[in-house]
Amino acid sequence: MSGSAPLSARGLTVSFGRTEALRGVDLDVEAGEVLAVMGPSGSGKSTLLHALAGVIVPDSGTVSLGDTVISDLPEPARAQLRLREFGFVFQFGQLLPDLTALDNVTLPLLLTGHSRRRARRQAASWLERLGVADTRDQVPSEVSGGQAQRIAIARALVTGPRVVFADEPTGSLDSLAAESVMTTLTDLARDTGATIVVVTHDPRTAAHADREVVVRDGRIGGRTGGGARGEAGGEAGCPAGDDADRAPRRPVVRTRA
């Protein structure tokens, strides 16, 4: 991997019919960075995440992971890259409903060629690390929303990904569970050296990030700063009061997008 920006986008455009979802987006995400992508509904932030993750191919522009141009790869190669290099956490966990917590976390390891014994041992270790070891034999319908998201985080991190993509990871949780899940996700990612790109409309979730970008009308605009206290946080609707008093995890460095 070369340079300090393992994930980069240049000139991304994506359209769905006549709707322009992305309009010439440039973005660099540094190694080990926690980046929050904010914006109103329909602004293009989830489309940007899917393009960065190689789930969709942009109409024009490029997405690169280190020296690999993801957007030039055929779908089978992009699927393998997603499996081996990326982890995903979604709003509702997206756990497989018929598998136990342990089997949900084990599955990515089996798909990357680990033996079943080794995969289950590694998965059990991650469930313990996330504080949900007691759910190992339960299916998703038998656990709470916060527990489900912790299981999903274990599944996202178990393969040692370079980048974790989180799409509204706290959107279905109450405020206490949301705070706990984001603290766990960001702390563990920093421990493992993973980069995180989190899409959110919630300033409290964005407050856990090192940097924030705001997407409006398919473009990155305004300013970026550390967490929800950066000036972009105010543009995105961060209220005064408790959120304004929340200290970012790292010093605020404001730049123009």
TrEMBL record:
InterPro entries: AAA+_ATPase, ABC_transporter-like_ATP-bd, ABC_transporter-like_CS, ABC_transpr_LolD-like, MacB-like_ATP-bd, P-loop_NTPase
PROSITE patterns for this protein: ABC_TRANSPORTER_1, ABC_TRANSPORTER_2
UniProt-recorded name of the protein: ABC transporter ATP-binding protein
Biased composition (Gly residues): 221-236
UniProt entry keywords in alphabetical sequence: ATP-binding, Nucleotide-binding, Transport
Region (Disordered): 218-257
Record-annotated ABC transporter domain positions: 7-242
Organism listed in the record: Frigoribacterium faeni
Keyword Transport: yes
Record GO terms (molecular function): ATP binding; ATP hydrolysis activity; transmembrane transporter activity
Keyword Transport on entry: yes
Gene Ontology CC annotations of this record: membrane protein complex; plasma membrane
